[in-house]
Amino acid sequence: MTQKQERQTWSSKLTYIMTVAGATVGFGATWRFPYLVGENGGGAYVLLFCIAMFVIGIPMILVENVIGRRLRVNSIDAFGDKLQDKGISKWWKILGYMGLLGSFIIMGYYMVLGGWVMNYIISLINGNLDISVPITKETAKGFYDLSIGNSPLQIAIYTFLFVAVNYIILAKGIIGGIERSVKYLMPLLFIFLIGMVIRNVTLPGAMEGITYYLKPDFSKITAELFVKVLGQVFFALSLGFGVLITLSSYLSKEENLIQTAVITGFTNTSIAVLAGFMIFPSLFSFGIAPNSGPTLVFQSLPIVFSHLPFGTFFAIVFFGLLLIAALTTSITIYEVIITALQEKLRMRRGKAILLTLSSIFLLGNIPAVLSDNVLKDIRPFNMSIFDFFDYLSGNILFLLTALGCAIFVGFVLKDKAKQELSSTPDSTFTTVWFNYVKYVVPLIIIVIFVSNLM
Fold first, then answer.
1. Where does the record say this protein resides (predicted)?
2. How many CB atoms neighbour CB 95 within 10 A?
């Protein structure tokens, strides 16, 4: 029996879309997007993000879906010469290995963020972070510095617990574990998100925050900002990670790739925008600056919650939401590496999971946890290890992988890509998409890549 015949498929289009939505939401939408909005002019950034989703997001989702479903194999062999495609050079598989390396590196710090969130949840529950009365900026920063920067053992333990939760889900398989967990986690995430939005937009003075968030200051819209936003879309949609290639490899040949890509892009954008409604009205309601950068949700929002009735409860819900979003993403990024190990090395799934999670924990998570204390003097390219992992994966590896994917579709697969995308390969949409991906998308990615290096 061939590998293709053995491969499972998603039980329904809805579960696939929910899984992809979970994979692409994560910290990109709930942590990174809000602080970037705050740093870059509010509504101007939001407007450009929505435009960028159509300019680069959805076309690239289709690129990775086409590559993934074509052969229905792992993200390395997806670029290979299996089945009818005997003429494809083996060197194209380098793109698959780059995606794997990027996934390994991003998980090196991503899981630590999950450990941070678990630390906040437990600290809120046991009273170590007491926000039952209003706290000051100094108190919030003091807790962050003490519990995140200067408690490496504690964060390592919480990170390990977060990894263990991932292990339990992954051990049950792509359908029994990932699909089944996402069926419960994504609705729960939406419930938490909507609840937090309703709570915060009804605060006194919230309208000022909503105006800042939605009303674009057109003077802030520049070509440089748009390039930054385009780069954030890659992070937000997990493009170049191999995630969408891997997930779509379990997709039935009958599924409509165009429809699922549009829904994926719309869902990701909606959740990111909703996350802003959860944050900015409350910041303005209590006079807290929105431009505090990556620590926005960890240092600024606890101050907000401390001023709210039942603030501790809402803070736990908020960080619980972040944890769910992180979990739905982390299990799918892990799966990219696990599937490759299973199919390339014929490794048993249990062994592949253990090897993937343990090696990332030892070589990635522990160095990232120690990057601001024990290993603070180790600064590759004058960055902490944590920041270096973020920079190398998000600004180098994923963009180069995505660039290669677009070129692979446009110049190698050619008509096969159009045939995989649609049952009507000569339709106007398919033709426009193909030419756009072949000639325009690579130029956009090169511009993003170069701007990141400057």
1. Membrane
2. 25
Burial class (CB in 10 A: 0-12, 13-18, 19+), 307: middle
Per the confidence metrics, is the pTM higher than 0.85?
yes
Q: Which two tokens stand for residue 200?
A: 């915060």
Average pLDDT of adjacent 10-residue blocks, the chain of 454 residues: 56 82 79 86 91 94 94 90 66 94 94 94 93 89 89 95 95 84 87 89 89 90 90 88 90 87 88 87 84 79 87 91 90 93 93 97 96 89 91 90 96 92 90 96 94 82
- Residue 23 parent element (H or E): helix 13-27
Q: Domain 13-453 maps to which CATH number in 1.10.4160.10, 1.10.760.10, 3.40.50.300, 1.10.10.60? A: 1.10.4160.10
Q: What is the Cα–Cα distance from 234 to 24, expressed in whole angstroms?
A: 10
The answer to whether 170 touches 122, Cβ cutoff 8 Å, is no
Nearest C-alpha neighbor of 69 from the set 116, 20, 34, 103: 20
Say if CB 264 and CB 239 are below 8 A apart: no
42 strand-pairing partners:
216
